[in-house]
Amino acid sequence: MQPFPGLEHQPFTEGDGPATAVLVHGFPGTPAEVRPLAAALVAVGWRVHGPLLPGFGPDWGTLRERRWTEWRDAVASELAAAAASGGPVMAIGFSMGGALTLAALETGAPADAAVLIAPFTHFDDRRTLLLPLLRHVVRDLRPYERADLDDPQVRHDLAEKLGDVDLDDPATRDHVRNAVSLPTVALAEAVRAGRHAWRAAPRLPARPTLVVQGLQDTTVTPVSTVALVRRLRGEPRRLMLDDADHRVLNPGAPGHDELLRALQRFGHEQLGRLG
Fold first, then answer.
1. Which domains does the chain carry?
2. Judging by beta carbons within 10 Å of its beta carbon (0-12, 13-18, 19+), is residue 209 exposed, middle or buried?
3. Which of 31, 38, 64, 237 would be 48's cystine partner, CB 3.0–4.6 Å?
4. Residues 6+ apart with CB under 8 A from 217
């Protein structure tokens, strides 16, 4: 069963505007999750690029071998390539993609503006502090082992990851429960990326920044995002979405349309400012 088989999970470039936005997906996502953001920015004149981080999407089988610094360096390379093509650059990161964006900017990667959507720095669950040790004991986590495979949201999630599979077939259900896994080491690397982003934030030069956070998000909590904003230089703008959770990038999810409108306003403003 090939993970993430659809073309929507591949890297993409859209639009032909004078400035480029680089959209960085989260963990364990793919460029598919940021495509609605891309469409919104293209509509107001941006050229957008959505890279696929190493080890994600169809390369899921290599995720165990990846380290957070490789993800950071990939983001930095994408930003440098965008700047080399001419015109201003805007860095946009979702969840762990937000952490990697901050980490890449610390290396000196170019960005004239930034957007952080539910930027990950840490999990509130203190058990995650054990991940550096746990990865040596438990190689893989099985996120669907006890999941309700008849739940519409679970089925939607699996359809995105596995494509058109028959979740009513007993053999398929058994495969999903016992073979679909997440390397513990990869989760530990994501935690490392978040910690580094937290430390890097106050060292970054001030730039126009929009930070968006759902108030119902339990993966990246509003408290952690507010604390991160206070560490950033300049005067970052905050947009707190009352009903939104961590699925805010999904079309139809609470807060999704408001997010797109805010992104378009910010993008249009930056095009005017940067010329």
1. 7-124+191-274 (3.40.50.1820)
2. buried
3. 38
4. 118, 244, 245, 246, 248
Name the residue among 13, 88, 82, 94 with its Cα closest to residue 263.
94
C-alpha 82/C-alpha 6 separation (Å) is 25
Print burial letters for 228-263: b (CB count within 10 Å at least 16), e (below 16): bbebbeeebeebebeebbbbbbeeebbbbebbbebb
pLDDT in tens, 51-102: 999 999 999 889 999 999 999 999 999 999 999 988 999 999 999 999 999 9
pTM of this prediction?
A: 0.90
- Tell me the pLDDT tens digit for each residue of 33-57: 999 999 999 999 999 999 999 999 9
